[in-house]
Each structure stands twice: as C-alpha cells, then as structure tokens.
Amino acid sequence: MRCPYCGHKETKVVDSREIEDGKTIRRRRECENKKCKSRFSTYEQIETLNLTIKKRDDKKEEYKREKLEESIRRATNKRLDEAQIAQIVSVVEFEIRAKDKGEVAAKEIGEIILAQLKEKDEVSYLRFASVFKSFGTGKRFVKELNKLEEKQKKK
Length: 155
Fold this sequence. Notes:
The chain has 155 residues and is α+β, with helices and mostly antiparallel strands. Helices cover 47% and strands 21% of the residues. It has two domains: 11-45, no CATH class; 52-140. Strand 1 (11-19) and strand 2 (24-31) form a beta hairpin.
C-alpha cells in the first residue's frame, strides 16, 4: 500500500478493527518513510456484486452499492441509523446473490427494500414507496397508507 502523502511503497498496519458487523475491516497504517511517518486509514470490504441492473426503461447499468445506500438514506431521512441502513443493504445483496443471476430488475431490488422498510419504519416505507411505485396523485398515497393501517389492525 502506497502512502497517499509521499508515495512511499512501504506502510505498516498499526491497528485493525472490524466495522459494519465484520463486513468491513478498518486498518490504521503508518508510512515507513523516515521523513514522512504519516498515518492514514484504509478499508477492506468484500467485493460487491458483479451485477447488471435492468431499469424500467430497459436501460442497463452496473450495480453500485453506494447508489443503493443513498436511495435508502433519502427515504429514511435520518429516521434509521447507519447500522440499520447497512443491514438493509446487506439483506438486499444477500437476496440478490441467492438468485444467482448476472442481471436483476430494479423492480426486484425495490421490492426487497420495501419489505425491509415496512418492518423497520412505516414513514420511510411510504417515502420510498411513493418514488418506487410512482405515486402520481395523493389518492394513491392515501390508498397505500390505508393498506398499512389495515395490516396494523389485523396484528
């Protein structure tokens, strides 16, 4: 690992810690250049899915974990913490891997996210659903809200 400050080829690991329930390792490193001795962090993660996402308009794009996280983060708007968001992303990736396909429809991913959000936070669920299901009118939003209320009564 090269030092990002001086470009020296040799660095040593000073400390390693697992984060995100062991899915990522954070390593504190130190440059071994006697003049530099700078410290920096690196993160080691399992390589994300090699996957193509098929959008509604039939366009295809490469899967990006960051994009998935951001869409969930927007829907939750600080209602869920980062650990809960990371857990939802992990569930989505696990279910996609289980299907063992090289291409998955964005709709399938959205359905998994909706199921997870429904369990964790109904407001976040409604926010995500309003974009995912393209609520064009307030009536569709109210209809979805009524479905949620009916399910709550049955519990």
